[in-house]
Structures are given as C-alpha cells and as structure tokens.
Amino acid sequence: MGRAPCCSKVGLHRGPWTPREDTLLTKYIQVHGEGHWRSLPKKAGLLRCGKSCRLRWMNYLRPDIKRGNITPDEDDLIIRMHSLLGNRWSLIAGRLPGRTDNEIKNYWNTHLVKRLRSQGITDPGTHRKLPEPVEREVKRRRSNKSTSNKKQNKSKAKLLPAEKHKVHLPQPVRFTSLPLPRNDSFESNTITISPSQGRDQGCFGNGDGFLVGDNDRYGLVNGSDRECQSPVPTTTNTLEKLYEEYLQLLEIDDRQDQVHLDSFADSLLV
DNA sequence: AACAAAGTCAACCGCTCTGGC
DNA sequence: AGCCAGAGCGGTTGACTTTGT
User: Fold this and answer.
1) A165 touches strand C (CB under 7 A)
2) How far apart, in Å, are the Cα atoms of A237 and each of A3, A190, A201?
3) What gap in Å lies between CA A23 and CA A149, rounded to an integer?
C-alpha cells in the first residue's frame, strides 16, 4: 500500500532499553497516560519508534506486570486455554492478570511445548496425540526470508525433546495494585472479589495448599517479596472459576461432543 | 579454561484490525 | 467505499546466559 513504516529506522535506537529510556518512558506515561504511541517518543525525548515504546511499556514497564515464576495453576491454565484458543496469546494473557502475551508466548514456546512433547502424547499445536514422532514443520510465514545455517540448526535443535527442567526465575519486579487496563481482563468481565478476600487468602489465596508450597520453595511470592501487600484479587480466584467451568464442560463433553467446549471458547472471545 | 550447543526472553517485524475522515 | 493512521497481535530473531564437553 505504500504506507510508511511505523518508524523510520534512521537515527532511532534499537535493541535493549537503557534504564534512562525506561525512566523517560515511565515518567511520560505517568503524566500523560498511554496512547498516541507514534508521537510519544518525540514528546518524551526518546529516540525510539512508537511501537517499541508501546511494547516496552506493555511487556515490561506497566506497573501491574506480575513477574516471577509461572505458578503451576497458571501453567495448567495456559495449557488448557491454549487447547481451546490456540495461539491467541493476548486472549490467554487476558485471563492471567499481570501476565503479558509475550511472556506467555515465550513460556509456551520454551517450556510447555517441550514438556508436552516429552510426554509424547500430544501435538502441542493441536493438543492431540501424534500418530508417530513427527518433526513439526517449521512454519515460515515469510517463506522468502532466508535464514542462516546457524539458525536452521537452532530451529532443528528445538524440535528435540530433550527436557531439562530449569527453574525459570525472572527478576523480581514491582507489582502494584493498579487496576488492569486490559479491556479483555477476565476478572473485569466476570468476577468480583472483595479486597478482604484477597487478603484473607494470602497472595495465592486458593486455600488448597499447593501454592503455599510453591511460595516456600522459592521464598518469594511470585518472585516478589512485596506482593502480599497488594489487596488486588489474585490470579488464583480467576483460575479457580475457570477451572470449575472448564472441568464441568469436560465432564459434559466426555458424553457429548465438542459443542460445549467450543461455546466456552467462544465465550472467552467476547 | 575454552569452546560449542542449547536455552531463554526482550525486542523487532510485518501483518491485520479498527475507527476517523 | 476507500484511504490512512494508530494500535494490537503473533511469529520470529538475536543477544545473552547456562550447560555440556
């Protein structure tokens, strides 16, 4: 269409963000709010394209970002949601407050795909049994793009089921009680939880114990030692609701057909 | 200790969608 | 209806780290 790219690549910084850039962006958004990403860099004094600023804010600087290990129930929910929704990371992320689509996508690609493969019973893409060990075709949306040998080898290597469960410990970062800005937040659409509930149940608040064990294991709460102060409803309440709903559907589905699960998935898309 | 291979994840790219005109 | 800008999304890359030899 001849449309100009979102940013001219001349004279703009690329690659990792510096603390100074982070500060500039954060301060600007604190004062002026999100949006107008194209004009934001100029106004904020950043030599970045708007897209880059948006991404940095959405995936890293937003105050409601929850960093730290993906908890077992989040992990399980991601798998279940993926089986329903496929690679719609933003939708899945919308059901995991404080998690970003990028984070979930990375987690899926680096942890869950391998785990599912190592279990040898599902095609992670479709969550179905593989007829036989088959290397997933590496989808190349842009087929003309050439790749180096190194990259090809790397991609190939990723198909191997070698599984090493390394504990992923992203750096602990702030997690405040600001309301979620996401429009598609599951909580905002479906669940209301009083602050006292959140407090009473602790950071993970599901009361069934296994998450407490998780806390003990890492000595942190979601990778942060500050989050218990947050009165915000926790992910677990959301997850419990989803689980219940999902499990009910699974029971029905065993006897009937895919219709219920499909409609459940559709309801999430609303 | 040095190097290679594999793993991780922040950032980028290019596409689509949406709303205003 | 068509064009455009802004925003958002998913796929991919590549720098960096970790692990293995």
Assistant:
1) no
2) 45, 11, 10
3) 39
Q: For residue range A216-262, what is the model confidence (pLDDT) as tens digits? A: 333 333 333 333 333 334 445 555 566 566 556 555 554 554 555 55
CA of A26, C1' of C13: distance in angstroms: 26
Q: Is-contact A224 A68, C-beta < 8 A?
A: yes
Q: How far, rounded to the nearest angstrom, does the alpha carbon of residue A200 sit from its chain's CA centroid?
A: 26
Q: Give the count of alpha carbons within 13 A of A230, CB side only.
A: 24
Residue type, A208: D
Distance CA A11, CA A13 (A): 7
Measured CA to C1', what is the nucleotide nearest A105?
C10
Q: pTM here?
A: 0.60
Please give, one letter per residue, the 3-state secondary structure of A134-192: CCCCCCCCCCCCCCCHHHHHHHHHHHCCCCCCCCCCCCCCCCCCCCCCCCCCHHHHHCC
Q: Cβ(A95)–Cβ(A267) under 8 Å? A: no
As to burial, measured by CB atoms within 10 angstroms (0-12 exposed, 13-18 middle, 19+ buried), residue A8 is: exposed
Q: Where are the domains of chain A?
A: 19-61, 72-129+172-269
Per DSSP, the three-state class of A128 is strand
Q: What residues pair up with A123 in beta bridges, in sequence order?
A: A128
- B8 closest protein residue (CA to C1'): A110
Find the Å distance, CA of residue A233 to C1' of nucleotide B9.
27
Contact A269, A91 (CB under 8 A): yes
